[in-house]
Amino acid sequence: MADPVTPSLGKLVASKTLDGHTGFIWDVALSGNGQILASVSNDMMIRLWNANTGLQRSAAKDNGHSNWVRAVRFSPAGRFLATASDDMSIRISDVNTGFTYRMLQGHTGRVRAVEFSPDGRTLASASDDFTVRLWNASSGLLLKTLNGHSGWVRAVAFSPDGKTLASTSDDNTIRLWDTVTGKQIHQLNGHKSSIRAVCFSPNGKLLASGSQDKDLRIWDTTSGATLNVLRGHSGPVRVIAFCADGKLVASAADDLTIRVWAVSLGFACVRVLTGYSGWVRAITLSRDEKMAVYTSDDMTIKIWHSA
């Protein structure tokens, strides 16, 4: 596979392949300083890695969960790790000791996604019980239950200022919520199937979504209007991410490709990366854009560094 070359990421070269998981990897996350990588798999293991050396720091069976862990996120300061599971719970643990600091219970369906707010004070979770929940990340207390979706909730994302939360669902809608009041701001309609991924642009003005209908959509977060529909993938879109400078959007789909779209060119596709041996389930970029990490169903994690 060719090295991905993009205006803001520079030239990235494949540097490491991390082996250890014995099942496909659900999710991967980088700590804020880019030093630690966390991965969760259907082999029931949660692994922490040194992102620079590729060496495994620790491996824990389930982290106390009694079923698959589907999502993992670091707190902004990198001290805590949140994991979301099919056992309907979220656990917040200490990165260094592995000690479970809080266990959050209340969902009545599997928890598919979890996200910390930018200030680290709030945790959002998405569940098959059709709800989004907001939790106090320190005390573990439930702050709000956001009702409105009529299908499994697949993904959540905070705006850069933390005031708005986006959620996506099998009901084919995206909903924008006020994180203080818990009230719905917008319902975004347009996708024709389940929406698997969502992210805000760094300035918070745009929202990008990826769907099982194979399309990406770009939305105006103020009006809720669709600005662009991006077509090119021949399979459901599972992953979507803005680069830190907001100039590019990367998407991964079941067609075994990653596409890179340029915002300044009207979201034209400027690169198609091929050669993957399985679905790409997660992509994460370091804040300085010198590192990209992705994982696919070949049970490995790939790390790319700037040349």
UniProtKB/TrEMBL annotation:
Stored InterPro entries: WD40/YVTN_repeat-like_dom_sf, WD40_PAC1, WD40_repeat_CS, WD40_repeat_dom_sf, WD40_rpt
One protein family per Pfam: WD40
SUPFAM superfamilies in the record: WD40 repeat-like
WD repeats: 18-59, 62-103, 104-145, 146-187, 188-229, 230-261, 273-307
Keyword NAD annotated: no
Domain of life assignment: Eukaryota
Keyword Protein biosynthesis: no
SMART domains (alphabetical): WD40
UniProt keyword annotations, A-Z: Repeat, WD repeat
Protein name as annotated: Uncharacterized protein
Organism field: Penicillium digitatum (strain PHI26 / CECT 20796)
